[in-house]
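Here is one such protein, fold included:

. . .
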Amino acid sequence: MRILLIEDDTVLGAAVRDQIAGDGQSVDWVTRLDAAGDAMHGTSYDLVLLDLMLPDGRGIGFLKTLRARGDVTPVIILTALDQISDRIEGLNAGADDYLVKPFDLAELSARIGSVARRYSGNPNPIISHGALDIDIASRSIHRDGKPVQLTAREWALFDAFLSRPGQLLSKAQLEEKLYAFGSEIESNTIEVHVSRLRKKLGAPVIETERGMGYRLGTP
């Protein structure tokens, strides 16, 4: 997944960013709502982590604006506001979850996984796909009962296919999943990573529509 983190506390923001990256997700971190708006205008995110008290306004207003224009991107609120009334306001504004600071980073990872599975149609964190048994929560894969190790980039791409079964994904859409990892994306990056995934998981796992993109193969 590609996640947008909106958090002005630099210590907490860095910790959350590192936790998300360590989970194999890509993350863009901004500290203001205007920067968040610009980021969402130019990029398709799978999830937003939203602080409520930011230098240029309240996150609730930002969330309401998103929902008013029909944006259904999942949003998890991260805030020090711990009153029941605050939680109700956040959820009524369209948040998918509400996590009160200070929180355990492992719990944040679990909440992210839960919301992602809800939106991908996979409420069960363990799914089977042909010879593969995939534990989405722990990001582990077994092929014919044997563990398979994926790099963070490989998992980010494979997760994109898992979350959109049967859907054709363009090269540009897949490249978006890798931008936040920092290193330059070359013209053949997607082809190289798809080839590695096929070697590790089996050639049929990813199908190619020549000149158009890739999709999760039929098990």
Notes: The chain has eight helices and 13 strands. The two ends are 22 Å apart (CA to CA).
